[in-house]
Automatic annotation (TrEMBL):
Keywords: Isomerase, Metal-binding, Zinc
Gene: manA
Protein name, per record: Putative phosphomannose isomerase type I
Phosphomannose isomerase type I catalytic domain ranges (all copies): 3-97
Source organism (scientific name): Limosilactobacillus reuteri MM4-1A
Pfam family name, one: PMI_typeI_cat
Length: 195
């Protein structure tokens, strides 16, 4: 929900008709691993090459490919969400947490992110979420083309209409939705009181 056509028009991705908001450009995650398209390892999955040839990646300490790079096209405001830290994600989701960063490829004039919240205490945060006080709860952050934004795990955030970003994050597919503008899709809205 909320995607556009920029992945096709600006980045030449072969995508189906309709709106698409996300491309996993570099991924070793089990939900969407890349297949290497040329060279000595052509046809092999990126995570397999990573595990069998760690020297190609600087002999990393992680046994799993640690990063996921996406292009996100927000043609409408995306779900307001939060991601867990490593400890919580390991215990409850059995994968890495998700800290991420965004390089703003394009932002329309007046574009902004939802970034952070106004609650002063955990109890106030939970109360505002439970009472659906969305306009009072969420903080806005103006952005422009060329900005770089760090989004540590536990930060409430969302891209809003008219923003395209290159996102680099930990290799995790765990997202807890807080608010989705009363839209409905197949993903369940989750209230994350651990923020």
């Amino acid at each position: 929900m909320g995607g556009g056509r920029h992945l096709a028009t600006d980045f030449s991705y072969q995508i189906p008709e309709g709106t698409i908001g996300e491309c996993w450009a570099i991924s070793g995650h089990p939900h969407g691993p890349n297949i290497i398209t040329n060279g000595q390892y052509k046809g092999q999955l990126l995570p397999k090459v990573y595990q069998q040839h760690p020297e190609l990646f600087g002999n990393p300490r992680s046994s799993v490919f640690p990063l996921l790079t996406k292009i996100l096209d927000a043609n409408a405001s995306l779900s307001i969400q939060v991601h867990p830290d490593d400890a919580y994600a390991e215990e409850h989701e059995h994968e890495l947490g998700k800290t991420e960063c965004w390089y703003v490829i394009h932002a329309e004039p007046g574009a902004y992110l939802t970034y952070g919240h106004t609650a002063k205490t955990r109890d106030e945060l939970i109360k505002m979420i439970n009472n659906h006080q969305w306009s009072k709860l969420f903080s806005k952050k103006p952005v422009k083309t060329g900005d770089f934004v760090y989004v540590p795990s536990g930060t409430i955030h969302a891209l809003n209409k008219g923003i395209i970003v290159l996102e680099t994050q930990q290799s995790s597919d765990t997202t807890y939705r807080i608010y989705d503008y009363d839209r409905r899709d197949k993903k369940q809205v989750s209230y994350a009181s651990f923020i």
